[in-house]
Write a structure and sequence with these properties.
Elements lengths: L12 H12 L2 H16 L4 E5 L3 E5 L3 E7 L3 E6 L22 E6 L6 H26 L17 H9 L20
Helix pairs in contact: 1-2, 2-3
Length: about 180
């Protein structure tokens, strides 16, 4: 598993995330704490990171999701959410992108724990499958040297040009006007 999390002032990422939850101190802190607990329940091996000047990030063979807090929502952004099946319809934000998908949780909204855990596991599986494919490419057996191959037969159009000696047409070039001398 990649470990690319950064530390600030000697504190671990987990402690920084705990501090963020505590400093929010309202429904957003409770919601972010609940999301964090569900992420850890879904994948006990998930790595907590602190990136981009204060964003909690959860990774397993790559970024699974981030947890941001705003005035009106707590947002969970899945890095590869566009590639995940979401049968429960949890994704409700950032739906127009080619890569990310997000879940905005507003004050008082219930979190569908089983559906969220399934989504987290699917994201981990997607990250892990991508790692296996990359590793498989690296382990590929090099191609054997083969005898030189014959050149492909020319197309009918190319053959016709060769017979007639036709050359590719180019646009005539204009000659630049002579520069005028100043002072005469």
């Amino acid at each position: 598993m990649k470990r690319s999390g950064t530390k600030q002032e000697g504190e671990s990422a987990s402690k920084l995330i705990s501090n963020r939850i505590a400093e929010l101190g309202d429904w957003r802190g409770e919601t972010l704490g609940r999301i964090r607990a569900l992420i850890k329940e879904a994948d006990p091996d998930i790595l907590e990171e602190w990136k981009w000047m204060g964003t909690p990030v959860w990774s397993h063979d790559g970024i699974v999701c981030t947890g941001e807090s705003y005035k009106k929502v707590v947002k969970m952004t899945f890095a590869k959410g566009a590639f995940l099946k979401d049968p429960s319809g949890l994704f409700n934000s950032s739906l127009e992108g080619n890569m990310r998908r997000a879940i905005d949780v507003a004050e008082g909204e219930k979190i569908d724990a089983p559906a969220l855990k399934a989504l987290i596991l699917a994201a981990v599986e997607l990250n892990s499958s991508g790692k296996k494919k990359t590793a498989a490419k690296k382990k590929a057996v090099p191609a054997k040297k083969s005898a030189p191959t014959k050149k492909a037969a020319p197309t009918k159009k190319a053959a016709a040009k060769k017979k007639t000696g036709a050359k590719k047409r180019t646009a005539p070039t204009k000659k630049a006007a002579p520069a005028k001398r100043a002072g005469r």
